[in-house]
Write a structure and sequence with these properties.
It is a single chain. The chain is mainly α and 344 residues long. 74% of the residues lie in helices and 3% in strands. It has helices spanning 2-12, 21-52, 61-85, 94-126, 134-139, 142-156, 158-161, 177-214, 220-240, 242-256, 260-277, 280-291, 293-303, 306-319, and strands at residues 325-330, 333-338. The protein has a two-stranded antiparallel ribbon with strand order 1-2.
């Protein structure tokens, strides 16, 4: 009898409707702002990577894949903002709802995967200098990037089975074996794709920082720049991915305990932190600049006026760089690119 009562209660609550329209209207404006800033930024980054920096020649295929993931994420923001403004957490159209979740999870997974791969590459370059770096070998092949995208599909497809965040999950209705397995696998994927990469990232960062502190060659300014390179990935990861993961765990706890009032508050916090997580499409370009000064130089030469170009490029010398150089095409012909200390 109690089971039947719970089923009736859960069905009368429309979990796709926003618990607080004013809050979600604010969220929608934040996403519109992210879209307004993220679209031109990512388009400009794509332009530089393809037409000016020639990423396939400069062994920056992994960075280019992060750009693609960010651009696809930005493309999803107007639809999410539209739903929030109309009082819905997700579209009532099941096809649209599942497609949006699939795109968001795929792009998030791709961004995390390539960020971690770049961190591992930096780890082997600094901590195990002189040994064979298998990541460096892999990133020279575009086929590896395609394989990474394909490997993400099995972990993203469960979001297509049923809607993930608004209309179902543990504690929403009486679980059948099918629903229980599907929901459990989906939650496991959601948490492991954040927690495991973060552990790897922290380990690599600690080892890199310790290795750089022990270096006796070079000035402190050079070492400080190299530390900023690896720390930029940690900052992006900590701001964009960890908070919403913690909020998701709290939300599931309230839902399983059937604390509806607390769940309504947790839902708003979770959705707000998910909106915050979308700023990774604005922060990732900082990673591009820290990881590859060649890209930074090409971007400045393309979009900044001449007076600012000289001032910004001088900052490379103040931060400290090696004398390693490379060339990249610009409007004025071939120009020299200064690479940072950590580039080999």
């Amino acid at each position: 009898m109690s089971i039947l009562k719970n089923m009736t209660t859960n069905r009368t609550i429309d979990h796709c409707k926003v618990p607080n329209p004013t809050t979600y209207e604010t969220f929608s404006w934040l996403m519109i702002g992210e879209f307004a800033l993220g679209l031109p930024l990512n388009l400009s980054v794509l332009y530089v990577f393809i037409f000016r920096f020639k990423f396939w020649k400069n062994k920056s295929i992994f960075l280019f894949n992060i750009v693609v993931a960010d651009f696809l994420l930005v493309a999803c923001l107007p639809a999410k903002a539209y739903h929030f403004r109309h009082g819905m957490r997700r579209s009532r159209n099941q096809s649209v709802c599942k497609l949006m979740l699939f795109m968001l999870f795929l792009n998030r997974g791709a961004s995390i995967a390539f960020l971690i791969t770049l961190s591992l590459d930096r780890y082997f370059n600094v901590v195990h200098l002189g040994r064979r770096n298998f990541v460096k070998v892999l990133k020279k092949s575009p086929q590896i990037s395609i394989i990474i995208w394909l490997l993400l599909l099995p972990f993203t497809i469960p979001t297509m089975v049923q809607t993930f965040e608004c209309c179902n999950s543990h504690g929403r209705e009486v679980e059948t074996i099918y629903h229980d397995v599907t929901d459990t696998f989906r939650e496991v994927v959601f948490f492991t794709q954040i927690i495991i990469p973060f552990i790897i990232l922290v380990y690599c960062t600690v080892r890199i920082v310790n290795r750089l502190r022990k270096k006796t060659v070079g000035e402190k300014t050079k070492l400080r720049r190299a530390v900023w390179v690896v720390m930029s990935v940690v900052v992006v990861f900590s701001i964009c991915f960890l908070p919403c993961t913690v909020a998701r765990a709290v939300l599931l706890g309230f839902r399983l305990m059937k604390m509806q009032k607390e769940e309504n508050i947790a839902v708003q916090v979770y959705d707000g932190l998910m909106v915050l997580s979308y700023i990774d499409c604005l922060l990732d370009p900082l990673v591009y600049c820290f990881c590859n000064s060649g890209f930074k130089d090409a971007y400045i030469a393309t979009f900044f006026p001449t007076c600012l170009q000289k001032k910004l490029l001088k900052s490379d010398f103040k931060l400290g760089v090696t004398t390693t150089t490379m060339t990249t095409p610009t409007t004025s012909g071939t120009r020299t690119i200064i690479l940072p200390i950590i580039e080999k």
